[in-house]
Design brief:
Radius of gyration: 19 Å
Order of helices and strands: HHHHHHHHHHHHHHHHH
Largest sheet: none
Structural class: mainly alpha
Number of strands: 0
Strand content: under 5%
Number of helices: 17
Distance between the termini: 20 Å
CATH architecture: Up-down Bundle
Length: 317
């Protein structure tokens, strides 16, 4: 088992890349994995907290102005930028709606482990990801109404209670695990922890493809166009985020870019009204593909930019 976990951890990007295609090729498996998404969130957050450097994470938390600026960019600056670029009507209305909502969504919680896999600042990704997620009920509904005329209802109290419970439980369990392992052994078992993170993310990669195969067979042209848009929007937002925060240094700027492009659109689905355009929902589904496929493609690029000396201990070749 240890060898398997070490293998998965050392080939994380390609395991996730293949996982997406497993979900597409085996739609029944994707349906079976779908109920595992909720518990997988807690498991993924716990494993990430075990793996990440808490001192670095606390250092980011003690610099609220940086965290605040990045969070403001993610939740306000990014959607305003996308809305401005699409104001001329260059894209179909449903695609424009989907792209603005994508930009307004907080980062996926798996952005932190992906950041560590790529050798970026996982602690920064985790801190701003949690901050942005907690603030989402307060920012997305007014932005959706102002920019798109779309009324979204996110139950703030229920949302905050559920998310707070997940975060608190994950911190407690991670703290206990870190104490059991001990600081001296943590670096030695890092590869195994990374393997566990990859297993949980693989469940995500398969489960999020639930329903995409059927849509692909039913509307191949629309899915193809939406997929092209997703593979343009994701790296475009990453570039915009990295450029906006280049003053933080290369590694942190790339981390901001990563969380800018990998957006938690699934968090918004529950708030959609019943008459929401199906094509918007379809875009949210296909937009998951670049999140799990681009890390494998972009890994050499990240290594060249930040250098192997700054890379995490995870070997992802």
């Amino acid at each position: 088992m240890n060898r398997l976990l070490a293998f998965l951890g050392s080939h994380a990007t390609w395991v996730l890349f293949i996982g997406v295609f497993l979900g597409l090729a085996l739609p029944d498996l994707a349906s079976l994995a779908r109920p595992l998404l909720a518990p997988a969130v807690a498991m993924l957050l716990t494993a990430t907290l075990v793996r990440v450097d808490w001192q670095v994470m606390l250092a980011h938390a003690r610099r609220p102005w940086v965290t605040g600026l990045v969070t403001a960019w993610l939740l306000i600056g990014s959607p305003l930028l996308v809305a401005g670029l699409l104001a001329s009507g260059v894209a179909p209305a449903s695609l424009s709606t989907a792209l603005v909502l994508m930009a307004a969504a907080p980062p996926i919680l798996s952005a932190a482990p992906i950041a560590m896999i790529l050798g970026l600042d996982g602690a920064l990704a985790l801190v701003v990801g949690l901050a942005a997620t907690l603030l989402t009920p307060f920012t997305v509904p007014p932005l959706a109404l102002a920019l798109l005329g779309l009324e979204l209802e996110i139950g703030v109290t229920d949302f905050m209670m559920r998310l707070s419970a997940i975060v608190a439980a994950s911190f407690v369990v991670a703290y206990i695990i870190r104490r059991i392992i001990g600081p001296a052994r943590l670096p030695r078992v890092a590869g195994h922890i990374d393997g566990m993170v990859v297993v949980v993310m693989l469940v995500f990669a398969v489960a999020i493809m639930d329903g995409v195969t059927a849509a692909l067979l039913r509307e191949p042209a629309t899915v193809g166009l939406w997929l092209l848009a997703a593979f343009i929007a994701n790296p475009a937002l990453q570039i915009a985020g990295a450029l906006a925060f280049c003053w933080l240094g290369r590694r942190r700027a790339l981390t901001v870019g990563l969380v800018s492009g990998n957006c938690n659109m699934g968090l918004l689905l529950a708030a959609f009204p019943a008459d929401t355009d199906f094509e918007v929902v379809l875009y949210f589904a296909v937009a998951q593909l670049p999140m799990y496929m681009l890390p494998a493609v972009m890994l050499p690029f990240y290594r060249r930019l930040i250098g192997r000396s700054e890379s995490s201990s995870v070997r992802t070749g």
